[in-house]
Every structure is written in structure tokens, then in C-alpha cells.
Design goal:
By secondary structure, this protein is mainly alpha-helical. It has six helices and no strands. The C terminus is likely disordered.
Length: 133
């Protein structure tokens, strides 16, 4: 099934996995125990962190990418806690875009992920400080 034919929530589900794998790859050579590396990844894949990543990318998004974000945001549920509904919607939009780009335009996905790495103060190498465990 071509990416254009995948339902929005399936694209978001795939995008969530792609984003988590990206975060793990960034940190897999960092010093630290697996539990600490896991904690760092979890902090970056939560809905609020994905919403922040989307905000950092917004000025760089193409109209089609903005449409994917809107579609994902509109299909998102309320999230696990009602107070997180706005984060959850933006995160689902971000995941939808990532999933679509992974399947249809990996080069563009790499450009956006590179931009996040260059502008995010929490991305490696800042994550490479010694573990406190």
C-alpha cells in the first residue's frame, strides 16, 4: 500500500516508531548505562517534546508537510490526560508528517531531522555528559 493510501493514524503510528529509532540512534554511542540512555530517549519521544520539535520545524515546512501535520492533529484523540490534548494533537501531527516522509521522501525527512539536531539544545552532544547513575 503506497504511503498516500495509508490512513492518517497509521502514518502517525509509523512516524512515532521512526522518531524513536532516530532518538535511539543519536544516543546509542553515548556513554551511560542503558537505563539512563532509555530515560533520555523517553524524554525526547513524549508528546510534549514532539510538539516542541514541530514548533521548531514550522518555519521550514512545505505546504504539503503542513497539510500532513493538520491531518494528523485533526485525527488525534485527547491523549492520556485531558490537560495534554493540545500537545497530543501537535505530536500526532508531527508523527504523521514523519511517517509520510519516511515512506515518500526520506531525503527531506533527513533534512528536517538534521535541522532539529542543529537547533535543539537537548540533542547530542549535549546528551553526552557522563551518567549520574
Amino acid at each position: 500500500m503506497p504511503a498516500a493510501d495509508l490512513p492518517t493514524l497509521q502514518l502517525a503510528w509509523l512516524g512515532d516508531a521512526v522518531w524513536e529509532l532516530h532518538q535511539r540512534l543519536l544516543r546509542c554511542q553515548a556513554p551511560g548505562r542503558p537505563a539512563e540512555l532509555h530515560r533520555r530517549v523517553v524524554a525526547r519521544v513524549k508528546a510534549d517534546a514532539q510538539a516542541v520539535a514541530l514548533e521548531q520545524l514550522k518555519p521550514h515546512l512545505r505546504p504539503q508537510e503542513e497539510d500532513l501535520v493538520r491531518r494528523g492533529r485533526n485525527r488525534a484523540g485527547r491523549g492520556p490526560r485531558p490537560q495534554e490534548a493540545s500537545f497530543y494533537g501537535r505530536a500526532t501531527g508531527f508523527e504523521t508528517m514523519v511517517g509520510w516522509l519516511f515512506l515518500r521522501d526520506p531525503r527531506r525527512l533527513a533534512e528536517l531531522l538534521d535541522h532539529l539536531e542543529q537547533t535543539d539544545p537537548l540533542s547530542p552532544p549535549a546528551d553526552h555528559e557522563p551518567s549520574t547513575e
